[in-house]
Automatic annotation (TrEMBL):
This is ATP-binding protein. The lineage of its organism: Bacteria, Bacillati, Bacillota, Clostridia, Eubacteriales. Residues 178-205 form a coiled coil. Keywords: Coiled coil. It comes from the Bacteria. The keyword Coiled coil applies. It comes from Eubacterium ventriosum.
Amino acid sequence: MNKFKDFIEIDKKFQNSINLQLDIDNLSKLNSYIPTHSSILVLDGFLNNVLSDRDKANILIGPYGKGKSHLLLVLLALLNDGKGDITKRTINKIEKVSKETAEKIKTIQSSVKPFLPVIISGTEKDLNKEFIIALMESLRKNNLMNVAPESDYGKALEVIAKWQKDFKQVYESFKQIVREYGRTVEEFMGELKEMKEEALNIFKEIHPKLTAGSEFMPMTVNNAMTLYGEINRALESYGYGGIYIIFDEFSKYIEGHEKDTFAYDMKILQDICELANNSKKQQIHITFVAHKSIKEYGNALSSDIVNAFKGVEGRLKEVRFVVSAQNNYELIQHVIKKKVSDCKPWFQEQNNKEIIEESYKIPCFSGLFTEKEYKKIIMEGCFPMLPLTAYALLNISEKVAQNERSIFTFLANDEKGSLINIVENGSEELLSVDVVYDYFQNMFRDSISLTNIHNEWLKADYALTKAESLNEEKIIKAMAILHMINRNEEVPVRKTEIRLATGLNMADFVSSLEKLESKNIVTYRSKLGVFAFKNNVGVNLDNQMNNMIEKQPLSLNWQEEIATVSELDYVLPKKYNQEYTMTRYFKYVYMIPEQFLNTSKSEYLFETYKADGLIICLVMLKDGDVNQIKEHLKELNDNRLVVIYPDKIFGFSEQQNIRKLKAVEKLLKDKDFLEENKVLQQELEIYKEDLIFEINVELEKSYLPEDSRCKYFNTLNGVTELCFENQISFNRFLSEICLSYYEHAPKINNELINRKSVSAQIKKARNLIIDAILNEEELDRFEKGTSSEATIFRATLMHTGILKGDSSEEEGCRRIIEEIDVFVGQCAGKKVSFQVLYNKLLGKDFGTRKGVIPIFIAKEIINLQDTPIIYLQNKEVEISSSILNNINEKPQDYYLFIEKESIEKEKYLKVLEELFLSEELRKKQKSKMQRLNNIVESMQRWYRSLDQYTLTFTKQLFEENEQGYLEEDAFERMCSFRKVFKGIELNPREVLFEKMPKAICDDNSGDAVFENVTLQIEEIKKYMDNNLVNAKKKTAVQVKSIFGARADESLSACLKNWYSKQSEKSKSHIYAENITGFMTYIEKLTTNDEDEIVSRLCKIITGIYINDWKNDSYERFVEELTYVKNTIQSIKESEQSTEGENKISIKTGENTIERFFEPDSDDSTSYFLQNAIEDALEEFGDTLELNQKVSVLVKALEELLSK
């Protein structure tokens, strides 16, 4: 056979990746473009954006090496130059794939002006500056610099030139200063021309030193968005239709950006995107080029960067560069040029022929190609690569490729490991998958963020050090590549696929694979049915595992260990569940025989394991007595228990697997160990999966009926051994158990509500139904519609017949309603725990799911003729959906009491409503369950509105012959009545039917008592409402008497008359506070309202209002008032001060204040006040003159004396 190099030619136009900045004018790159359906679809979208003036800010996303940059190079060429020969040839190539796209290109060339291309590379730290530099570079390349406005850098260069020409001395000083910065003038000006920010900042520092402090402020445009807008408008007169910006390698820019300035740069991008989207006639387009979206980075990017990018992301349309697998294979076909006839000797070689034919059966090829297409595109087109080698090349390059290493560089670059290099070196064998591994292995090593790929490389790299032949190396590399691709649905890593990837004949492959297995380099993963690496990477894992096992206790809690790992979890009795439209389940429980035998009641098991039935799998650590198990099962006598007695002992090998599993789990939690042996984590996790799989295989053999390795026992038909052919027959038996034990369960066809725990959304819907029932609203709104509450209402109340309550009632639901009625009957006149009801509804015969119970309880409560009261322990609570939900969760905490109704009670309640309820509240009252609560709340509100004196006095103020007097027995009843309402939280029923009758009536038994209670409450309310008014009247009469007036005279006139008769000296005398306050009040008295006068006098004389009086407050007031009157009257008129009396006179302007006062004996408080005043005066020192200090003191004294 010839060598490949004799007849294969590689099209080298593909050897280098596209660099938009460097290749924008490279016509040969344009010429090498090969249109595919996928790329033309994307190109067509960009052309539409230009024609329809839309989506002008977008991001093109696609893996490395797929031709994104090449496509954009073509787009820019088409938008900028449509007349060159190469461009025309490109259009002709496009036309062969899509005539419609070619027509759009021609339309643009004939009707749309060219676009100025601007390439952003993202290499500058300041993105605003980079946009400006890129624009200037594009203007320079296209001879448009006269369009560019002056920049700060250009202005700085102008100033330097002016100094050099007109100000020689300044220029010489400038040269000297620049040298201090380590630069010559030429170097410094060069940096300004290159727009180096540091050079501009230095110039700004220098400028004031040379211009008498003048700052450098050229007033030029330095904002990228503003600059692009201005230049875009100016370009119209130069024949341009707009600007097209490409931000190349945007992913690298994101990945390498510093967090500190990222938010600022995102604001720049946001502005540019808005400028583009808002541009009209002169369009601006911007396209970002990325290999994945920001969301696909996961934790590789900080949350700050992701959040900052969101403002930009919302302004971008995402365009996916999706290249079909078939197109990719066609690209390979275009690159590798040869005559098919020259390839036939390789196709006819027996092993090659077998491998090519078998490869077509793999899903990645059979699902994509017809057999004819496969032969043309894969077998012939990708020659000299094996089919799986081409597959691996495409998939690996998509995962790890960069510009420097991609599918194209592999095919066309003449470098070590590339296709052209292999061909040129005289290869004669078809290329197997190991060549892909060899070419990209450095990328695998460096791709630390791609965990799966890097870990597989680590394992393969270690495995290669143990390989003893090229065949073993081929197998290792092929396995590594297939695991990196990780598409088991396309190419599972099984023995057949590995061989097809290596190209080895069967004998050599089997021999080499067995050697790798014997050396513990590769292992077969039983759970997944694939081969994987068993890498130890510097540590003997078996020894490490054995060390961990040796540290474990001799005896483990085997039943718990098994339960933790077992995948035998629940069994659903399908027939029963289907018939009853609900989900019941049996739970697998693992117990050793001793544990089962020590269980005295089955209830204990169901308290621990929440399920409808239990399948108890006995873990036999030694031989046992099956008869003993049967006898104990008979004693427990619970049909819900199924006991499985295995024939096989849970022996050393089974125990050892669990010990290994525990050792693996401990190693996986050992951070130090994993840090030292990073690659082992994945192997340990794989080993853990396999151990769990193997343990469960043994459990299924021991406890499932298919292998007939166990005995089944149950008490449904006597304790006999049961035989089951398979899981189906066993499942039917579980349904029989449910039919027997839960015979009367309700059939409610809605599993969202007919379950133990309902979701928050369903609970909300249930609440709507319950509240509507309790408030006696119209329920027809639930009869139609698709809302959750409508479907639940129909399932629980309509379709079950409960709403109508006729013969159409579903049997199970009818029985539940009957049980609720029985419970309600037990609650007549006494509190009974809801736990009694729930025990019945959740227990044998019913097994009702909690989700539906609150609806049925609400339905029955609202139908009662009597009044239901619900207690939370000893506190009455309002009946609502919330309370019924709480009962559903903790029925043991809640009680029901039914208050029997009677004619006497009804009259009693009506009188109370008339006495205490407002008309508005009566109208709002929706249900009778709120009635008692509303009455007591209104009574409590009335009680709290009364004055403190009325609520607390215990001694009558009035004599028998006075208005406001209450008979002693009635007074005692009033005091007892008040005590009822002293509490903060009251139980309405107890208040109305127990506590008030007991407080008011001696004989409070029987309903007849309520007539008497009603009369007494009317009297008590009237008395308490008028008590304060009467007290004020009596006090007013007493005040008149003290001041010598009759009861029918005016209180105001009486006081004023007395005041007018007092001496002037008494009026200007300084008394105690209450006397001074009294005189001042009388002096200024203007009102005739005796209630108001009495209230003010009580406050002035005793310091407390009449509303807050206590038992002795009246006597104290009379005594104090008499003393005040006598004291004032004792002050006689005299020019001279009496003995021991002082006089003070203050004259300010025309006003004179004279006051007499008694010298007070000194005490500690007086001293404290005097010292405080002196300290304050001293603190101000010389800041106030003596006259100012005296003035302040006199003003204060004047204000004090005027009170």
